[in-house]
Automatic annotation (TrEMBL):
GO terms for molecular function: ATP binding; ATP hydrolysis activity. It comes from the Bacteria. Coiled coil: none annotated. This is ABC transporter ATP-binding protein. SMART domains: AAA. Keywords: ATP-binding, Nucleotide-binding, Transport.
């Protein structure tokens, strides 16, 4: 399975954010998407998830036989700011989520088993989401993917709100599920990208670029990435 982006263009007014961005993401790999603030990472995720339509270019999800298998349930998207119904308890929300997606769920576990996986304590399960911490809300977003298992999972800045222990647990979780998914997450944390990801993709001047594997292993990796990202700001300050 591959997620194929071809020549994605997206502008807001006269600001061109994505300039024929193309890339092929493969199943079984975790991709770290690096880019400066405002480089267009969230915009790209919105185009992939169809939350916002690109001006031109195509997004396809193709299976092993080359057929486009994209449908409404193909993409799981965790927003940087979790969007959850605050007036439900965590337990009520998961019950609701399972109910509306029931035709689409395989190997369903019990709600408590899901809470166990993301380590939300028993007493917190029946509290309103409005009183959850930011990290707990992010965990709830994350568990939705464990329930419905969308083939493509987009995580916009997901791990920054987690404390070190939770971030470690979520990283383990992502590694465990990665073989069945295409996982792309945006981050500003270079260490996280190198630590968790199989590939690093830079969004640079509106285009996607794979960071060479040799470069990833080289001792001056951090400097080289800085050079690439700084080039971007030089270009945009000129234009
Ligand atoms: N709905 C919108 N209307 C107008 N401009 C927008 C809109 N959404 C994004 N932009 C602009 O597009 C550019 C890219 O924004 P985007 O949010 O995709 O960046 P980002 O890489 O996700 O940044 P960050 O790292 O800060 O999250 C920015 O200049 C932003 O101002
Ligand atoms: Mg963003």
């Amino acid at each position: 399975m591959e997620l194929i982006l071809k020549d994605i263009e997206k502008s807001f007014g006269d600001k061109q954010v994505l300039k024929k961005a193309s890339f092929t993401f493969e199943k079984g790999r975790i991709y770290g998407l690096l880019g400066r603030n405002g480089s267009g990472k969230t915009t790209l995720f919105n185009c992939i998830s169809e939350d916002d339509k690109q001006d031109s270019g195509t997004v396809e999800l193709v299976d092993e036989t080359g057929n486009d298998i994209m449908n409404y349930s193909s993409i799981g998207y965790a927003f940087a700011q979790p969007v959850l119904p605050e007036f439900l308890t965590g337990y009520e929300f998961l019950k609701f989520y399972i109910d509306v997606n029931k035709d689409n769920i395989q190997n369903l576990l019990s709600i408590d088993e899901y809470f166990d996986i993301i380590k939300i304590e028993k007493e917190d399960r029946y509290r309103l989401i409005k009183d959850y911490s930011f990290g707990m809300k992010n965990k709830i977003q994350m568990v939705c993917f464990l329930i419905t298992k969308p083939p493509v999972i987009l995580l916009d800045e997901p791990l920054t709100s987690f404390d070190v222990v939770v971030a470690y647990e979520i990283k383990q979780l992502l590694k465990k599920i990665k073989s069945d998914h295409i996982l792309i997450f945006s981050t500003h944390i270079l260490e996280l990208a190198t630590d968790l990801c199989d590939d690093i993709v830079v969004l640079n001047n509106g285009q996607l670029e794979l960071v060479d594997e040799e470069l990833l292993k080289s001792p001056d990796f951090e400097e080289k990435i800085m050079d690439i990202l700084k080039e971007d700001s030089d270009v945009s300050s000129v234009s």
